[in-house]
Amino acid sequence: MRYFKNIGLVILLLIMPVEVFSQLRPLDDMLTDYQYPYEVHFIHLKTQNNDLKMAYMDVKPKIPNGKTIMLLHGKNFNGAYWEQTAKDLSAKGFRVIIPDQIGFGKSSKPQHYQFSFAQLAANTKAILDEVAVNKTIVLGHSMGGMLATRFTLMYPETVEKLILENPIGLEDYKALAKYQTIDDAYKSELKNTYESYKNYQLKFYYDNQWKPEYDKWLNLLAGWTISKDYPQVAWNAALTSDIIFNQPVVYEFKNIKTPTLLIIGTRDRTAIGKDRAPKEVQPLMGQYQELGKKTQREIAGSKLVELENVGHLPHIEVYPKFFDALYDFIK
């Protein structure tokens, strides 16, 4: 059985373009041989009859300003893509906490786990308790924006300020698109390749304008797809896709009392389940130039910074503009 699985991997590598093959290498489920930009620590979680490891980076400034900021990654990423953000925040005196959520990056990929944003928030709070941080600014990107919202609603006394960078969940996907079972989502995840990930990112993240600096984040995802551990990674990806679809936060933005900043790339059209929505509904989904304004109206006193002609990843695509907006809000 293993022999035939390996044949598929060999065929994939043989048909892959030479320039891709030279960059791509198999990555195990915990990214054990991938170097993160800062030292990685772990907490051990005994949860849902699982013994899990949750990874995080704790970047301490040379000259502290007394403030901490926690950076929450999106679904197709891990904490490593906050490298430049953490470097510059640390230089400004901030302590920077960067978790890898369970199911992502260097954290455990459980087989039997009831994922929920509330559970992920509780796991994240355990990291803050471990490092004795009682008050923090929270920045969440993409899926991390949904988690940051849930975290803020669960632990309002802990969150000094909230920043949502192109968060998904600004609309209720299950009200717009057909449900996909976890089993079907898993089958879909197993089909992912370097090319499928790149095509998706070109469409939603970078408007068909690829730059060499994007490769490192793409290769982190694609490296999993050529690893023997990919089925476990794909299973966790399917489980987290399910909570994005079924656990909307859009109806609770009105309950946020924390000072909030929305950083919105207006070219973004990301919408979970768009391909399963009626044809006439699909063009109406993921309209971030409208969703950002709508969400600002829902969160009392919130501030909106719109980045024109920018996609789903402002802190990668137009980093200086992103950081200026962020730092102006938290300094």
UniProtKB/TrEMBL annotation:
Gene Ontology process terms (BP) = acylglycerol catabolic process
Q: Per the database record, which ranges form the AB hydrolase-1 domain?
A: 68-270
Against InterPro entries, the record matches this protein to: AB_hydrolase_1, AB_hydrolase_fold, AB_hydrolase_sf, Epox_hydrolase-like
Pfam family of the protein (one): Abhydrolase_1
GO MF, one example: monoacylglycerol lipase activity
Q: Name one GO cellular component term.
A: membrane
Q: Protein name, please?
A: Pimeloyl-ACP methyl ester carboxylesterase
- The scientific name of the source species is Chryseobacterium defluvii
